[in-house]
Amino acid sequence: MIKLVCFKCKKRYEFTEPVWRCSCGGILDLDFTPEFPIEKITTRKPTMWRYREAIPLPEDFPVISFDEGFTPMLEIEIENRKVWIKQEHLFQTGSYKDRGASVLMSYIKGIGIKQVVEDSSGNAGCAIAAYGAAGGIECNIYVPWDTSPAKLIQIESYGAHLNKIPGTRQDTANAVLHSAETTYYASHSWNPFFFHGTKTIAYEIIEQLGWNSPDAIILPVGNGTLLLGAYLGFNEMFQKGIIKTIPKIIGIQAENCAPLYDLFNSEISIQDSFSFDNSKIKKTIAEGIAIAEPIRGKQILEAVKASGGFFIKVSEKEIESSLKEILRKGYFIEPTSAAGIAGVKKYILQENNSKHETLVTVFTGHGLKAGVKIGEVIDN
Ligand SMILES: Cc1ncc(COP(=O)(O)O)c(C=O)c1O
Ligand SMILES: [Zn+2]
After folding, report:
1. 93 lines ligand 1 (CB under 6 A)
2. Which of 18, 42, 127, 302 could crosslink 97 through cysteines, CB 3.0-4.6 Å?
3. Do 193 and 55 contact (CB within 8 A), yes or no?
4. Cα Rg for the chain, rounded, in angstroms?
């Protein structure tokens, strides 16, 4: 039994109802209990769909898939510490968003929707467009005008309609709401099915560490599709007794756009209602996390707190120097991913207890998507 449940008023909807938010305006989550038949799982193909019983879609639903998942984990040295990197830039569309798009677009096809709208800083738009192409679903993607050109080309290449919106990422989010009144909104931040795709990163990390949980996971965070997904996945395996502890979740934000860092470190209690203060927001090279008003902000703060984690903010200079350092080791990642690495460096330098911890972080997006911005950094 799968139900959509409002985070705010607890109203329940049939999961097949094409609603992307509650009638009260609240965010919807899923009431669903995953199963993990480990003996079956380990005999299946190494893709995220090997955890089929943990993905909230009925058996007879179509699965739109490029055999995504099971991205390699690799140990690299950062600040003289070994850190596991989950290489999510190696997906079909070049970012971890494929996990969410595969589940969300399968759900959308399964309930018979033929046309969707979506807004994105670029990568989620690329993923929704690619899975839309594979599943025969027409996509209308809204992005900020200054999104990396390769992402724009990628979205259009898949046959999606592209709408470039003047102004900030928030202006793009506002613009799509108008279209969402008449067309299904395949939103990676509103729609809970997306998070039930991104959660598979946690299952894979656990399996790749020999069915163990890391001590901490360090993730760049904007709308929290990766962070909340990871928390959900770790929590589900914890509830089922597969792991004994949930890792500390460390959220990394750019200093120029750090609403979650600021709220977490303010006097405001997470229980209170709060609004975001846009006055301090500036442009950042980490375009994927340039989110001034994360829709699931409250949930992100709660997840980080419940895991025993915290937030770190990194400057533009720190992002750029981490990017250069990683490129020089032979990895080609986006500046947004480099923000995560800058956060890892700070975490290691700040935290005395990190020496014996198993640390995991993620290369979230491929450098080929942001060649122009990377070029500007290396020319500096
Ligand atoms: C490359 C990259 N890394 C990280 C993120 C983090 O975003 P979120 O917090 O929504 O998962 C994004 C989002 O677009 C991204 O494109
Ligand atoms: Zn509600």
Report:
1. no
2. 127
3. no
4. 19
From 187, 289, 323, 369, mutation site for ligand 1 pocket: most ligand atoms within 8 A of C-beta: 289
pLDDT at 380: 77
- Looking at the chain, how many residues does it have? 380
Task: Identify each DSSP E strand in 24-183 by its residue range.
Answer: 28-31, 73-78, 81-87, 115-119, 138-144, 161-165
**What whole-number distance in Å separates Cα of residue 145 and Cα of residue 120?**
11
Q: Whose CA is nearest to atom 5 of ligand 1?
A: 288
Q: Give yes or no for residue 294 CB within 6 A of ligand 1.
A: no
Binding site membership of 226 for ligand 1 (Cβ less than 6 Å): yes
What is the pLDDT at residue 270?
A: 67
Q: What is the pLDDT of residue 269?
A: 67
Please name which ligand lies nearest the alpha carbon of 291: 1
The C-alpha atoms of residue 289 and residue 258 are separated, in whole angstroms, by 9
Low-confidence ranges of the chain (pLDDT < 70): 269-272, 352-353
How far is 282 from 25, CA to CA, in rounded Å?
28
- The residue whose C-alpha atom lies closest to atom 14 belonging to ligand 1 is 288
For ligand 1, atom 1, name the residue with the nearest CA: 365
Q: What are phi and psi of 361, to 5 degrees?
A: -140, 180
Ligand nearest to the CA of 224: 1
Read off the pTM.
0.97
CB 49 within 8 A of CB 65: yes
Alpha-carbon distance values, 196 to 160, 204, 272 (Å):
24, 13, 27
Name all domains of the chain by residue range, CATH numbers in brackets.
1-31 (no CATH), 73-95+194-379 (3.40.50.1100), 97-192 (3.40.50.1100)
The ligand whose atoms approach the alpha carbon of 220 most closely is 1
Q: How far apart are CA 96 and CA 364, in angstroms?
A: 6
Place of tokens 């990895």: 331
> Collapsing DSSP states into helix, strand and coil, what is residue 11?
coil
Closest by Cα among 53, 86, 25, 102 to 240: 53
